[in-house]
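dumping this here so i dont lose it
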């Protein structure tokens, strides 16, 4: 073990020999975090120059064997032994959700504890309250694990790219959805068959609709965009669509057209406005991001000075996420030991001033290329009626595929467009979907990124 330094807190003058940590929630990420703190204790101590001690872990079930060697009084069912414990410096919230996690976090902050959390939902939806309270109480909030699992994307944005104006951030930030889309693509299976496997592997949220409905990606995008563009957390303004409507048929058409379908989270700044959107996206197969499969995440950040930078790694799971949690614990522990003030300014989440978030582009005004799959009646004039409505709405066609023959019935008719405005697309599809002599059901729409 490294020789322990005696750290004198500049503010209090007290000598502190160790930083003590308490964990709330001993589930997937709680176990990964505890394992790293226990098994890499000497390594961390050598790197930091002082030990970090895991004092307490609170969970509802403390009987279950999680295969980690813990001291005899470490486990408790009483969360207040963590939040109210005078010996604990850093409280790590790994319960998840917006209920008890929020109450316990606020309690810990008011008790002067520094916070580390992986709870992107809580930060994205109640971040103003949490960061506001932390500022008032003079404590740090570490949230590296909230986006990208083991990828240090929060530090990259807040520190590594601090010299840059950011033009855009986009990527695959939900491991569960990426795992499902990958399996659907590789094995041609239906969506519903794959979800269960992702849950069993510990990637999915307690409520998996957050993953597949896109909300988890939207939570993460709100956090990334706040750091990248200095805007307040704007979760409620993220346009969000999940992957539940993606079918093997669309995956197979995408492949034929040279694309893969990925759930993308996109934040782009242009003309003084930021657009925030999460939706399934067709991407050219030869793009690097199209090759990001399974539970892996990848995030592009384009800085004015750096150009494109790409961050890739495991976006979920006990050990990768535990690694991100422990990196925050280590960073905060160093600040505690040196008496440094809590982090603020650049690289910190922005506080909302008043009124609605400024400078956000409405989804209606976003421009994209589109894939439409119409359930088109197989009869003369249908294609010309569809293309007529698209033309009336200023939507220009790039290519058309029609497969099969079903006289009197419906066949899939696929159209790829050039760049068009979302408002016009919605208007056109509403009109086309109402033409009973043209289509038999709702048109499938998937946005397309890439070169025109
Ligand atoms: P888990 O459900 O695996 O773990 C949460 C644990 O907290 C469970 O053991 C749960 O017990 C326990 N718990 C519930 N209520 C209390 C309470 N009042 N006091 C003490 N413990 C309690 O969740 P994860 O580890 O997967 O997720 C934790 C957080 O990390 C979430 O915010 C999630 O979004 C985030 N995250 C998860 C990742 C992953 O790969 N799983 C990756 C990145 C972030 P019980 O099961 O009995 O309810
Ligand atoms: N449920 C999330 C995912 C966990 O699948 O990516 C990581 O945040």
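and the seq i came up w/
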């Amino acid at each position: 073990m490294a020789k322990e330094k005696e750290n004198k807190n500049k503010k209090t003058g007290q000598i502190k020999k160790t930083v003590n940590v308490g964990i709330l929630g001993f589930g997937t990420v709680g176990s990964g975090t505890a394992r790293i703190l226990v098994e890499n204790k000497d390594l961390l101590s050598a790197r930091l120059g002082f030990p970090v001690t895991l004092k307490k872990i609170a969970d509802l079930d403390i009987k279950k064997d999680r295969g980690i060697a813990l001291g005899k009084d470490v486990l408790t069912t009483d969360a207040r032994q963590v939040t109210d414990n005078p010996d604990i410096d850093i409280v790590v919230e790994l319960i998840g959700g917006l209920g008890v996690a929020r109450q316990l976090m606020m309690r810990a902050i008011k008790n002067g504890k520094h916070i580390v959390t992986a709870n992107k939902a809580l930060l994205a939806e109640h971040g103003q309250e949490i960061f506001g309270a932390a500022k008032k109480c003079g404590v740090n909030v570490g949230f590296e694990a909230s986006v990208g699992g083991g990828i240090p994307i929060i530090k990259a944005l807040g520190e590594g790219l601090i010299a840059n104006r950011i033009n855009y951030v986009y990527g695959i930030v939900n491991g569960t959805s990426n795992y499902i889309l990958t399996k659907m693509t590789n094995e041609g299976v239906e969506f519903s068959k794959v979800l269960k496997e992702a849950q069993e592997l510990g990637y999915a949220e307690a409520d998996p609709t957050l993953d597949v409905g896109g909300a988890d990606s939207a939570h993460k995008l709100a956090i990334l965009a706040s750091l990248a563009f200095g805007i307040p957390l704007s979760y409620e303004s993220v346009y969000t669509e999940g992957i539940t409507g993606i079918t093997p048929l669309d995956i197979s058409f995408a492949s034929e057209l040279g694309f893969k379908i990925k759930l993308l989270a996109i934040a782009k700044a242009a003309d003084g406005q930021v657009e925030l959107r999460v939706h399934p996206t067709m991407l050219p197969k030869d793009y690097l991001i199209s090759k990001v499969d399974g539970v892996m995440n990848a995030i592009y950040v384009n800085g004015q000075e750096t150009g494109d930078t790409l961050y890739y790694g495991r976006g979920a799971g006990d050990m990768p996420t535990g690694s991100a949690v422990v990196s925050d614990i280590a960073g905060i522990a160093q600040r505690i030991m040196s008496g440094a003030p809590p982090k603020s300014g650049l690289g910190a989440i922005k506080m909302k001033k008043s009124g609605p978030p400024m400078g956000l582009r409405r989804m209606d005004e976003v421009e994209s290329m589109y894939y439409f799959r119409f359930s088109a009646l197989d009869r003369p004039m249908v294609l010309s009626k569809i293309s007529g409505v698209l033309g009336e709405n200023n939507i220009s066609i790039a290519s058309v595929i029609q497969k099969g023959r079903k006289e009197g019935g419906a066949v899939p008719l696929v159209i790829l467009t050039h760049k068009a405005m979302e408002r016009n697309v919605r208007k056109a599809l509403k009109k086309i979907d109402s033409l009973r002599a043209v289509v038999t059901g709702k048109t499938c729409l998937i946005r397309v990124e890439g070169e025109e």
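The CA atoms of residues 323 and 342 lie 22 Å apart.
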